[in-house]
């Protein structure tokens, strides 16, 4: 069999479908690239300590390694057994690497688990010194407890009390201890971490850095060395894409794109999927399996336009069918977003070819790309789109702090109970809540929803709401590893002191920011965020039986035209303020 491109050959180990996948636990993880790319994450550190503590305890121990599919449970369990300290004690443990598997065609995985964990049933708990480690998906764990809960009620209570199968826990939730049960839950840890400066995708930053590091243990880089001086390498698209990642700013931009996808769209990306994405990012899909002679022949026949389409800054936004990650990145294409600075770039590029070429030379570091762009056969619109995308990477955009960064900073301050860091965000949210049904342009009044179709009258009422700050925290970690991904707010209705709680995710936060810029939510927005509409209604209508209602006749000079009020005797009064 003819050899394929050396870089593609090594990167193929990152693919989910690969037999020697880096994220696959395997029986023996001996591949050099697997070892090189392994990143020790917080769950692994915690698991190591749990195992060492359990080894010193004479009592029976059940250690649950919990999480979702592909988040690295089995890989971590296989990797941790190579640690010298763990290696010295692991022989005292039974290790079950995959709780979704059955040990017999006649048994379900639940029945296999029942046999495996029998000594931890209510009846036998504490009667043995068995030490068992089980890697288990949360769905399987939930089904196991649902089907065998009567037999394992103590284990079920431990899972319930620690909220193991619940989502979106805060970093401060303390584990409920048990003499026989321990756990580490991978879903407690997001793909990203929070700091006072915003969020960061540390694992992808590290992976991309290791992918391009000049080290003898990095077989990907050694594959690059093998071909970089070949005559055909000057037009090699895999080489160009790989070299694009040499620049730290380019790597940061890719991490930032994935981070925005995770936070904005609540996309769940496992480590396995992240590694697969790195492969797809560098190796164009139609070139990945070609033997070198065929690869050279194929790229030599490519038009300039085809070559540029496969260059990373263009390719990353233009291939939504590759995976759900690429599909999400399509929505973050800088060509879709207009700004004053972008409009100026487009205007400059349209003034003539000289300006266009100067811009390309300013942005690009590879002379081959600059030569390709000068081809007269390429349409101007294509070149402009290419330049916009290239600038997105190389300029890192010196724009003002956007909503995404503000939201991530607010998440950090909210999860660490630092209310002073939330003052500006809270003020913005209070303003948007007030204007949910429309702007009254009156400081102490809100507009009420009128369901009937009419455009003649608006209803107002007095509403002075305030946010109740969370408990102040003196000590907060610089980097937050466990946190809830929504802002949690507690509003107090000043009219009668009732408390109303609401959680705001990024999608709602962005809508509220648009409201503050003059946008008025339509019926679709209110349906999409029905829970928030219900929250606003509770806040506004908590004193509906006694509140004074102000009626504004639209297009009439007066701010308030009529007042409907109720006195202490329950009598209603309707006044015409224009008389």
Explain what you see:
The protein is α+β, with helices and mostly antiparallel strands and 579 residues long. The protein is 43% helix and 12% strand. It contains 26 helices and 14 strands. A 5-stranded antiparallel beta sheet has the order 7-8-12-13-14, with no helix packed on it. Strands 2-3-1-4 form a 4-stranded parallel beta sheet. Strands 9-10-11 form a 3-stranded antiparallel beta sheet. Mean pLDDT is 84; it is low at 25-30 and 168-172.
Number of discrete domains: 3
Give the integer mean of the pLDDT values: 84
Query: Which stretches are low in confidence, meaning pLDDT under 50 for 5 or more residues running?
Result: 25-30, 168-172
Biggest β-sheet strands, sense, barrel: 5 strands, antiparallel
Number of strands: 14
Structural Rg: 30 Å
Count of alpha and pi helical runs: 26
Distance between the ends:
95 Å
Strand order of the largest sheet: 7-8-12-13-14
Shape: flat
Strand content: 5-15%
Helix content: 40-55%
Tell me the structural class. alpha+beta
């Amino acid at each position: 069999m003819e050899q394929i491109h050396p870089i593609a050959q090594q990167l193929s180990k990152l693919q989910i479908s690969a037999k020697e996948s880096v994220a696959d636990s395997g029986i023996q993880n001996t591949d050099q690239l697997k070892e090189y790319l392994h990143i020790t994450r917080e769950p692994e550190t915690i698991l190591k300590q749990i195992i060492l503590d359990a080894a010193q305890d004479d009592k029976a121990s059940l250690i649950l390694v919990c999480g979702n599919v592909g988040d690295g449970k089995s890989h971590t369990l296989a990797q941790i057994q190579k640690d010298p300290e763990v290696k010295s004690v692991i022989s005292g443990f039974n290790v079950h690497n995959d709780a979704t598997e059955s040990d017999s065609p006649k048994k379900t995985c639940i029945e296999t688990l029942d046999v495996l964990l029998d000594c931890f049933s209510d009846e036998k708990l504490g009667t043995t010194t068995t030490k068992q480690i089980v890697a288990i998906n949360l769905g399987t764990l939930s089904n196991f407890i649902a089907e065998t809960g009567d037999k394992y009620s103590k284990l079920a209570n431990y899972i319930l009390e620690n909220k193991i199968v619940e989502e979106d826990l805060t970093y401060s939730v303390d584990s409920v201890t048990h003499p026989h049960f321990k756990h580490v839950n991978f879903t407690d840890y997001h793909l990203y971490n929070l700091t006072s400066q915003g969020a960061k995708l540390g694992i992808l930053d590290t992976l991309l850095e290791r992918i391009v590091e000049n080290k003898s243990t990095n077989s990907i880089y050694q594959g690059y060395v093998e071909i970089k001086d070949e005559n055909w390498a000057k037009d090699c698209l895999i080489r160009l894409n790989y070299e694009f990642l040499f620049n730290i700013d380019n790597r940061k931009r890719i991490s930032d794109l994935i981070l925005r996808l995770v936070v904005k769209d609540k996309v769940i990306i496992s480590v396995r999927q992240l590694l697969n994405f790195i492969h797809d990012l560098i190796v164009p899909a139609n070139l990945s399996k070609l033997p070198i002679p065929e690869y050279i022949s194929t790229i030599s026949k490519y038009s300039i336009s085809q070559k540029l389409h496969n260059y990373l800054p263009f390719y990353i936004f233009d291939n939504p069918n590759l995976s759900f990650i690429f599909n999400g990145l399509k929505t973050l294409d800088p060509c879709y977003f207009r700004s004053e600075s972008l409009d100026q770039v487009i205007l400059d590029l349209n003034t003539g070819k000289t300006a266009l070429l100067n811009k390309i030379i300013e942005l690009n570091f590879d002379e081959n790309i600059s030569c390709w762009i000068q081809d007269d056969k390429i349409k101007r619109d294509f070149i402009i789109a290419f330049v916009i995308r290239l600038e997105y990477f190389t300029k890192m955009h010196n724009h003002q702090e956007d909503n995404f960064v503000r939201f991530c900073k607010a998440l950090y301050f909210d999860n660490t109970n630092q209310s002073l860091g939330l003052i500006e965000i809270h003020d913005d949210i209070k303003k948007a809540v007030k204007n949910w049904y429309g702007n009254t342009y009156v400081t102490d009044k809100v507009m009420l929803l009128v369901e009937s179709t009419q455009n003649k009258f608006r209803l107002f009422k007095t509403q002075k709401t305030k946010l109740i700050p969370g408990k102040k925290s003196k000590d907060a970690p610089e980097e937050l590893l466990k946190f809830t991904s929504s802002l949690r707010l507690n509003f107090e209705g000043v009219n009668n002191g009732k408390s109303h709680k609401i959680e705001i995710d990024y999608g709602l936060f962005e809508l509220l920011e648009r409201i503050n810029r003059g946008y008025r939510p339509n019926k679709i927005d209110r349906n999409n965020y029905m829970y928030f509409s219900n929250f606003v209604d509770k806040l506004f209508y908590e004193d509906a039986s006694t509140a004074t209602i102000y009626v504004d006749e639209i297009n009439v000079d007066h701010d308030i035209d009529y007042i409907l009020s109720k006195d202490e005797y329950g009598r209603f009064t309707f006044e015409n303020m224009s008389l």
